[in-house]
Amino acid sequence: MKQFHYHEPKTVEEACLMMAELGDNAKLIAGGTDLVVQMNRGAKAPSHVVSVKTIQGLDSIIENEEGFRIGAATLLADISDHKGMQSKLPMLCSAARSIGSAQVRNLSTVGGNICNAAPSADMAPGLLALNAIVTIAGHENLRTLPLEEFFVGPGIVNLEKGEILTEIFVPTPTSGTQQVYLKHGPRRAMDCAVVGVAVTLLFEQPTGRCQQARIALGAVGPTPLRAKMTEKLLVGKTFNEFPLDRIAELAAQEASPISDVRASADYRCEMVSTFTKRAIVQLASFA
Amino acid sequence: MNKNITFTVNGEPVSLTVEPRWTLLRVLRDKMFLTGSKEGCGEGECGSCTVLVDGKPVNSCLMLAVAADGKTITTIEGLSRGTELHPLQKAFIEKGAIQCGFCTPGMVMTAKSLLDKNPDASAEEIRQEMAGNLCRCTGYTKIVEAVQEVAGQLKGGCHENG
Amino acid sequence: MKMDRGQMALDQKQEIVGNSVPKIDASIKATGEALFAADIYLPGMLFGKILRSKHAHARILDIDTSKAEKLPGVKAVVTWRDAPDLKLGMYTDDWQFFAKEKVRYHGDIVAAVAATDIEIAEDALALIEVEYEELPGLFDPQDSLKLDAPLIHEDRPGNIAATRKIRKGDVEKAFASAEHIFEDTYQTQMVDHCPIETHASVAQCDSSGKTTIWSSSNAPFNNRFLLSRGLQLPMSKLKIVLNNVGGAFGGKQDLMTEPSCILLSKKSGRPVKIVVDREEEFTASTVRHPFTMTYKTAVDSKGKILARKIELIQDMGAYNDLGEGVLRYASLMAAGPYEIENVWLDAVGVYTNKQVGGVMRGVGVPQVSFAGESQLDRIAEKIGVDPYEIRMINALEEGSVTANGQKCVGIGFKETLKAAKKISGYEWKSKEKNRGFGIASMVYSSGAAGRHDYSSAVVKLNEDGTVVVLTGAPDVGQGVRTTLAQIAAQTLGVKYENCWVEAPNTDISPVDMYGANASRLTVVAGNAVMSAAMDAKRKILKRASEKWQVKEEDLQIVQGEIFHQGQSKSLGFFKDVVMEMHRPYGQTTIGTGDCITTSVPMDPETGQSEAVNIFVFATHVAEVEVDPETGLVKVLNIWAAHDVGKSINPVNIEGQIQGGVQMGLGFALTENIITRNGKTLNPTFLDCKMMTAADMPEIHPIIVEVPEPKGPFGARGVGEATCIPTAAAVANAVCSATGTRINSLPLSPEKVLSSLKMKSSGKKTN
């Protein structure tokens, strides 16, 4: 690993200033589970590393009526174990639990998982399907952005020089919303998703019509993505009216995966179909 | 570039000057000669380097030593008291859970944190929680049995937690 | 009082062999005290890194190390210029420690650096300038075999590294009249041993010319032989010390770090440590050879195998290394554990510009077992015979003659079949949808097959009556030190706790030629230790007979006390007699012993000979569930029945079986080193996936004991067999669950799904 300067800003402002000054020579580090590996392999060699772990308040989960404000430096382990999230955002807890090992989850942060912008990032589909909003701090201003607009490409996010992700806000889903994240990989642990599918569904009662449907896909495009055309096929229909085969087909069409050592593009498309259908069937059975 | 860090390792306060690029594992092994923690992959995939930081298991190969400033670290060397082994260590020996022994320190540390959190963990929970510790010798069966054995003792309340 | 104790000793007369005593080294491994090669830190020690080839095949035009040498902190840089200019190998001299004219795969060593810090050594590697002229690479044995293919080794025509033949009976005649003939081609992939400890060594060359190497080796004497030749150092100047080894599985006899370490230490005058990282382990260490296997089998309508014609193509990688031995094992066992009158086999090992194949648990037999056992299932299905029955019909039994013309004596193959079937509840056709059972068997040799195999031992009695065993047998986690302590204790009649087995040190330990390989140590080193213990015991009993004026043959030692036949009162303590040998007689009681096997080289034209040392048999039954929408295979259970002859330490054997099955399942389902143009694309545990605790099914070890006349206490080696039939059992189970057969490993979800789709669309699958 190449030598670097290590900085421990105490405030978000300080961190932003540092990142603005240091520019491309600097990398932010939170848990380091990705950056340290990259630096070790020589794939990344920043001359400055700026830690966000020393910034107060960046690692807490605040729950109120509107939703959950999740600090960017919140550990995946803390998300997985958070009682409030377990009851209202269970798919985020299970997504967090599906990442790496217990040891990794005690280091990795939700902000890191998002900012690495790996197409397979397990937190992304769930957060997309829950319409998460990210808060981005610059050294002068603060802006918010739907998560969907945060992802630009593989490894690239919508952060300007001197900006850092500080918070992810997840609105409390409307009462009765069902949610699930399904991850597919060859092993039952320690895998990157070959395909990840997050679905939320809200059925109007007593008609049983689908009022709201959101489907987000991981590992099947340059960024995690929403399958919005597929979602439209569900709205206004009861479960029995869902055109499941068409849904599966369309979801696969909305994906644009690549082939790599983990799977071929064709297989990934098929798995989008399979797991989108499975997620919908699974949720409908609770409705 | 170098940083001074102060942390507690196995109950002892330690002050060291470290390079920012050194991982916690590098410092434990190369600077403190605590060689019980092993490097199996250096990428957080095998768990051989597992230590407890403030009671929680982490991959010490992924954590920069500078980030350990102010923390409390427990390594395998801090688990037994003199010649008195931790119940998990005894169970690993008795159940035949040790073959080459390279993964064992990491396995024991993960198991300890698991039982600290969930004293009556089931076999399935043990398997899930310990998935980050790879073993190439045992097929895991006897490791899971050893952890279960201690979980059983904890449940029965006849064990003093080390 | 004494009489009571004596009576107690006689009454309890605990058998140490057959008992699951705790391992000799378990407690230091539980506490982290156990030192592995990478745990050694010496005063003034430097840290080394190895520069490996950037290309799969290239001519080296120039190596310029001057910039690296000038980097502050760098103490030595070595290249081929620092080593004797010669090629060597276990079978063929085709490999130079440091590449000189050419690099032949991505792992070839070009240079090595030692520096005061590992980071400096890493930086120095980047400063070494190597000028290459790229050459066309060969990545598929079929391409290497083409007439116009470039040569990887200029002196190896046709890129052929090794060949092997078997000729028994007349296959063509049998095919001409057979009722059913089946012909299929199978392929297996490249996998790594994946010991959790990567290769590591520390070398210290002092001013007297003595070199000490602390190594992670699984075959120190083998290494000494090659290092002595390759570096032209007399063996007396070359001491290899093993402490603890973090798993090997056959992969740790390749000299991945030692030559670099030694030369760097010699050049710098300081101790040097090299630990390879995981990526290097995946890309540059030896691997299991990929095989392409064509099987043509004739059977009659009842399922009796009439003839088998087999062609094996082994992807050798860039060098022969131990590949020729792997081809020999694969050839010997290719026909399977069956009595077949007509067998014809042609096997060829072919050079490619890929990772070098080495020996890996099972030595070529996991590959042929997958092919032969998959085909046998297809045959059974086609002619309507239960796969269990077809194995019983053809099974080798007492007096059967194998493909290499060797008569089977004292074997327990059918017992493994029966036990596996009974305990698993195996059914040919599962009643549950998408579920199925699969059965597969294997034959293996305990002790090197087709070459003489030997080991020696020394049993030294301390004056307090405790015992030290000196052996060259390396404990790589399989527990051989425990096994040997049990054998010594049982033979001498002393307590297990009083026996210590010292880890190998080539200056002190008597020779053990092949190390942890070929499931040989329990048998070969075990017999040597047993014979050394008997030698020491004779000396003590001789003294005891003089002392108490009784006949030597009427004496026995039980739990450290000496008894005269028929008497319950002991004559005295073993330790007191040992002490008397010290004072007044001034003698250390030392027993020596050795074992040489009777295995004979295969005839080059017919393969016929008594090549197998001791036959080992096993049968695995797998129960799987296949997800028809994803192709994911979930293994529910594995029952693994192994004839171990005599179980010296049952818990230890269960552990071997459970661990071997983990490796077998990885081979079956998830492990696969993927290369493109000779470069490894997935050199991580993340993408070359071994099974985690969460993935492993229930494994049910079934220990069968048919005593082996040549084994100590009737034992056979078991370690390698444990991973051999698993993949075929899983593949057969997948076929039983889905009706589709896949002829190549691994059975990835994608491959299974595509095979299911082809089946439903009515196409033939391969």
From TrEMBL, chain A:
Domain FAD-binding PCMH-type: 1-175
One Pfam family in the UniProt entry: CO_deh_flav_C
Signal peptide positions on this chain: none
UniProt keyword list: FAD, Flavoprotein, Oxidoreductase
Domain of life assignment: Bacteria
Transmembrane helix among keywords: no
Record carries keyword Protease: no
GO molecular function annotations of the record: FAD binding; oxidoreductase activity
Entry protein name: Carbon-monoxide dehydrogenase medium subunit
Organism: Desulforhopalus singaporensis
Taxonomic lineage from the root: Bacteria, Pseudomonadati, Thermodesulfobacteriota, Desulfobulbia, Desulfobulbales
TrEMBL record, chain B:
Organism: Desulforhopalus singaporensis
Keywords: 2Fe-2S, Iron, Iron-sulfur, Metal-binding, Oxidoreductase
Protein name: Carbon-monoxide dehydrogenase small subunit
Keyword Iron-sulfur: yes
Sequence ranges assigned to domain 2Fe-2S ferredoxin-type in this UniProt record: 3-79
Superkingdom, natural source: Bacteria
Pfam families, A to Z: Fer2 (PF00111), Fer2_2 (PF01799)
Protein's UniProt keywords contain Aminoacyl-tRNA synthetase: no
Lineage: Bacteria, Pseudomonadati, Thermodesulfobacteriota, Desulfobulbia, Desulfobulbales
GO molecular function (one): oxidoreductase activity
From TrEMBL, chain C:
GO terms of molecular function: iron ion binding; oxidoreductase activity
Domain Aldehyde oxidase/xanthine dehydrogenase a/b hammerhead, first and last residues per copy: 31-136
Pfam families the UniProt entry points to: Ald_Xan_dh_C, MoCoBD_1, MoCoBD_2
Gene3D superfamilies, per database record: Aldehyde oxidase/xanthine dehydrogenase, a/b hammerhead (3.90.1170.50), Aldehyde oxidase/xanthine dehydrogenase, molybdopterin binding domain (3.30.365.10)
SMART domains referenced in this protein's UniProt entry, alphabetically: Ald_Xan_dh_C
Matches recorded under PANTHER family: XANTHINE DEHYDROGENASE, XANTHINE DEHYDROGENASE SUBUNIT D-RELATED
Descriptive protein name: CO or xanthine dehydrogenase, Mo-binding subunit
Organism: Desulforhopalus singaporensis
